[in-house]
UniProtKB/TrEMBL annotation:
Main enzyme class: oxidoreductase
Record key words, sorted: NAD, Oxidoreductase, Plasmid
Lineage: Bacteria, Pseudomonadati, Pseudomonadota, Betaproteobacteria, Burkholderiales
Keyword check for NAD: yes
Protein name per its UniProtKB record: Glucose 1-dehydrogenase
Length: 252
């Protein structure tokens, strides 16, 4: 995969103000991609946009709560008004709630997890696909989790939501393959992003690392490298896949 393959590609990233989203934006800014950045954290988004604009990148930043279909639709529409098309949609926004057993998980926990982690991805896919159908296709990447491929004790709502993301990914891939729209999901193991380090899981990193054959957690830049590979236009025959990036955890 060559990073120059993103030159003049319009790439939309949700959850762009931090974590994987900010790293993706920084990497893509160096390639000549046209960036459409969305996040509910308006201040963080503005800081990132200023930094990238100072490097000469083409950036459109718009506050967006992905639980609102109207706000997601507005970001896609703004991307098309500004750049004329949408080549890549990366649905990265997500949340991780405090750890609880399934029996302790409340309806409010489930609703919150599904609102962001499932509906947010669904709304992104829906409006990205509608635009891609109006042009000559495109690529969608959904950020799921290893918890979307296996069980995740004490994270029932999160695991259920990420399994739903994998199901949406495979369904859309099958429906739109003939329209030159590729849809994949990336399923990372724990990585040192603020969502992980700022939770109870952050205190268990050493223990979790021992459960991986590589005996370490993934680095955020390693996850971003996999995401860029999955979205690259040269990777034109891969669709409907949920790709684990997990240091070998799912191999055993």
């Amino acid at each position: 995969m060559r990073l120059e393959s993103y030159r003049d590609q319009t790439v939309m990233i949700t959850g762009a103000a931090g974590g994987f989203g900010a790293l993706l934006a920084a990497e893509l800014a160096q390639t000549g991609a046209r960036l459409v950045l969305a996040d509910r954290d308006a201040e963080g988004l503005e800081r990132l946009a200023r930094t990238l604009l100072d490097t000469g990148a083409q950036v459109l930043a718009q506050r967006c709560d992905v639980t609102s279909e109207a706000e997601v639709q507005s970001v896609v529409a703004a991307a098309v008004r500004r750049f004329g098309r949408l080549d890549v949609g990366i649905n990265n926004a997500g949340i991780l709630l405090p750890m609880k057993s399934l029996a302790e998980t409340t309806e409010a926990d489930l609703d919150r997890s599904f609102a962001v982690n499932v509906k947010g991805v669904f709304f992104g896919m829906k409006h990205q696909i509608l635009q891609m159908l109006a042009q000559d296709g495109g690529v969608i990447l959904n950020v799921a989790s290893l918890a979307g491929l296996s069980g995740a004790p004490k994270l029932a709502a999160y695991a259920a939501a990420k399994h739903a993301v994998v199901g949406l990914t495979r369904t859309a891939a099958a429906e739109y393959a003939r329209n030159n729209i590729r849809v994949n999901a990336v399923c990372p193991f724990y990585s040192a992003t603020p969502m992980v380090t700022g939770s109870e899981i952050g205190a268990k990193q050493d223990m979790l690392a021992q459960g991986a054959p590589m005996k370490r957690l993934g680095r955020p830049d390693e996850m971003v490298a996999a995401m860029l590979m999955l979205c690259a236009k040269e990777n034109s025959y891969m669709t409907g896949q949920a790709v684990a990036v997990d240091g070998g955890v799912s191999a055993v």
